[in-house]
Design goal:
This protein has 305 residues and is of the alpha+beta class. It folds into two domains: 157 residues, Butyryl-CoA Dehydrogenase, subunit A, domain 3; 138 residues, Nuclear Transport Factor 2, Chain: A (Roll). Helix content is 55%, strand content 15%. The protein is built from twelve helices and six strands. The chain has a six-stranded mixed sheet. Strand 4 and strand 5 form a beta hairpin. Helix 1 packs parallel to helix 3 and helix 11 packs across helix 12. The longest helix has 25 residues.
Length: 305
């Protein structure tokens, strides 16, 4: 296998490492491209291309994350990761870790960690890298990496829910939810949403907040869903169930299939606890043509009058 083929074989792994560190599809793709350029520029033949390239993409991602943190602190409104509809990397032996680590909830927990803690956690807990390789990737001693891993694991475990639905339960409940919200069926929604359900939108100040920034509680969230979604489908909008970051979600499309918003559901104890809506067009562009959200909102308003 030549170097080009070797890199292409490892590309899905490199992307999925970078995405979990950065929470951004575009930045992860840029990190992989920079890794390729460095791979092309080196004359040395590493003992393990996987270890070498994983270390390079990790170091690049740490540097990018440090500068991204400043931008995220200045972000308008809630910040969510860019939605990922398909994870290109598959590993049957790590499928549970891969699915859990890419969820919106997990990526937001990772935001609490320092860049080094985040990188060590991703390499160790998600991909089961050994500490010698992790130390080489982050430029710290093995002992320091073990301490970073312990701290990161403690932070992550402290923020995770105690009881989370299994995959089959999530999919069944999500299907009922999508049917109920498309029909404006409040009584069915009452059975599916928790009493303190939250709906939070990330627009970055560049799109209307279909969830009004943050709606909390059954009555507020249901009112928003019932007022907007049935009318949205009436004007030709579509509600397309789709796995989003390894969890049930939905893609809202406006005229001619342009993407309007992507929602991800957190389901615990048999109820939907959180609905996260990514509305910022900059975070949707990697999925295809983006719809004019303002035009959609105006049309919904005209029809409802």
């Amino acid at each position: 296998m030549d170097r080009d083929e070797e890199f292409e074989e490892l590309r899905p792994l490199l992307f999925t490492i970078a995405y979990r560190i950065l929470g951004s599809v575009g930045e992860a793709e840029d990190a992989v491209q920079e890794t390729w350029l460095r791979w092309e520029a080196t004359d040395t033949e590493p003992a393990s291309a996987k270890s070498f390239l994983s270390a390079v993409v990790t170091r690049i991602s740490i540097d990018v994350l440090r500068s991204a943190r400043v931008r995220r602190e200045e972000y308008v409104g809630p910040w969510f990761p860019e939605p990922l509809l398909t994870d290109p990397y598959e590993d049957p032996e790590r499928s549970a870790e891969l699915a859990d680590s890419v969820s919106m909830a997990a990526l937001l927990l990772l935001e609490r960690l320092s860049p080094l803690e985040r990188a060590v956690f991703v390499l160790r807990e998600v991909f089961a890298f050994g500490f010698p390789d992790i130390a080489a990737a982050v430029g710290r001693s093995e002992a320091a990496c073990r301490q970073l891993a312990v701290r990161a694991r403690r932070h992550m475990e402290g923020g995770r829910p105690r009881f989370e639905a299994d995959r089959r339960e999530r999919e069944e409940l999500a299907g009922r939810f999508f049917d109920a919200m498309a029909e404006g069926d409040v009584e069915s929604l009452r059975e599916l949403l928790s009493a303190d359900v939250r709906m939070v939108g990330d627009s970055g100040g560049k799109a209307p907040q279909f969830s009004r920034g943050m709606s909390v509680g059954f009555d507020n969230v249901t009112r928003m869903l019932v007022l907007f979604l049935p009318t949205f489908t009436e004007i030709g909008g579509t509600i397309e169930p789709h796995e989003v970051n390894g969890r049930p979600g939905v893609v809202l499309r406006y005229r001619e299939g342009g993407i309007l918003s992507v929602w991800s559901l957190d389901i615990q104890e048999g109820r939907i606890q959180t609905i996260r809506a990514v509305n910022n067009p900059d975070k949707l562009a990697h999925l295809g043509p983006v719809a004019d959200a303002w035009a959609a909102l105006r049309e919904v308003g005209r029809v409802r009058k």
